[in-house]
Amino acid sequence: MERTYTRPWRGSASKHSDNSSVGSVPSGLRLGGWWDKFLIRMIFAVAAVAACFHFHPFGLTPLVAAAGGLLLSGAIFLIENRLQRASLRRIIGAAVGMTLGILGAYLMGLVFTRTSIPEGSRSFLGVALLLVMTYIGLVLGANKGDMLNFGGVFGSERSADRSPKIFDTSVIIDGRVADVCEAHFLEGALVLPQFVLRELQLVADSADGLKRQRGRRGLEVLQRIQKMPHLDVQIVDDDFPQIAEVDLKLIELAKRYDAEIVTNDYNLNKVATLQGIEVLNVNQLANALKPVVLPGEAMRVFILREGKEHNQGVAYLDDGTMVVVDNGRRAINKTIDITVTSVHQTTAGKMIFGRFDDRAETARQAPPAGAEAAAVRPAGEAQSGGRLPRSIVPEPNRS
């Protein structure tokens, strides 16, 4: 039974209807989706090939001209793909620079016409100057385009130097990324692909109560992030139907947008790093922010359970760091002072090893020897050492 999926990150609560999805359009058939782009590109490529086949310029045969038209359309598609990643400032800067370069080449070509340079050499110099000036203007205009400011027209546009961030399902369900964003450690464009949202919806609709609670928590985290004014949350429809794994889809999407992946998945972190993708791991950030503990320092911990080795106890700090305490088995469910012996960094986090001196603890808690001797004194010593205490009950034979 299908369910109608609404977008909870737009500020409304998650709504699910048990009726069939009437009027819902698949993501691939929406206006402006990948199917529309593919259709438009196919029409353009066919038109280019037909035009080159009909006119066959430069004296080429119709088949060779048609092949050239196909190569030209492919080059235009590559340029379009690159331009989609550029900011509006860079595009306008490149257009202005290219126009100025062409104008400069034209003016310099007028100078060449008044010289005695042969016609063939003058034509070569004119074409070469046009190419050089156009290229220089295009490159300089694109590089200096970020300096343009037209009265706040680009005020809402993020700087091109900030790579967009892509969230995966695990880091959304974890929830700590919302606190990181609220502390302004993450800024700019945050990309949320539709396939991640679909996976999050499946978790929220799970029959398992724990999974359902985690999925709903992830939706609440998205609502919280979407309301932050310094973030630009973008929902993208890009999908890769030929790829089944969500992690591999995230990697391909990061390559397409030249973006960074925000996750706490260890395996995704390793695979993305091997493929040259920048990864921001929330677990690594949490480990980096943990307090530094040096061997020899004293700390107070609560022994929660016994350890794997003999006479060991296990405690946890507030940030979740495990503390293994030698001689701590006797102090289970107690708060004790220990001495740090070593600190080990593992892939799962940091582990602290310490030692509990139970003899010093026993000596500190024991009462003084003199007080114990005075409290426990033999009866014979008390009778021989002094006068017996007077009875407060009157004797019957005394008047």
Care to describe what's here?
It is built from 14 helices and 10 strands. It is of the alpha/beta class and 399 residues long. It folds into 3 domains: 26-147, no CATH class; 165-288, 5'-nuclease (Rossmann fold), CATH 3.40.50.1010; 298-361, OB fold (Dihydrolipoamide Acetyltransferase, E2P). The protein has a 5-stranded parallel β-sheet with strand order 3-2-1-4-5. A 5-stranded mixed beta barrel has the order 6-7-8-10-9. Strand 6 and strand 7 (312-316) form a beta hairpin. Helix 1 runs antiparallel to helix 2 and helix 6 runs parallel beside helix 8. The termini are far apart.
Task: Examine the coordinates and then state which fold CATH places here, giving the name of the CATH topology of the largest domain.
Answer: Rossmann fold
Question: What average pLDDT do the residues reach?
Answer: 78
CATH class of the largest domain: Alpha Beta
Helix/strand class = alpha/beta
The main sheet comes to:
5 strands, parallel
Helix content: 40-55%
Gyration radius from CA atoms, angstroms: 38 Å
CATH H-level homologous superfamily name of the largest domain: 5'-nuclease
- In the CATH classification, which architecture of the largest domain applies? 3-Layer(aba) Sandwich
Number of strands: 10
Please mark out the parts with pLDDT under 50 across 5 or more consecutive residues, or reply none: 1-31, 155-161, 379-386, 388-393
Strand order of the largest sheet: 3-2-1-4-5
Globally, the shape reads elongated
Domains (count): 3
Helix tally equals: 14
- Terminal residue distance: 106 Å
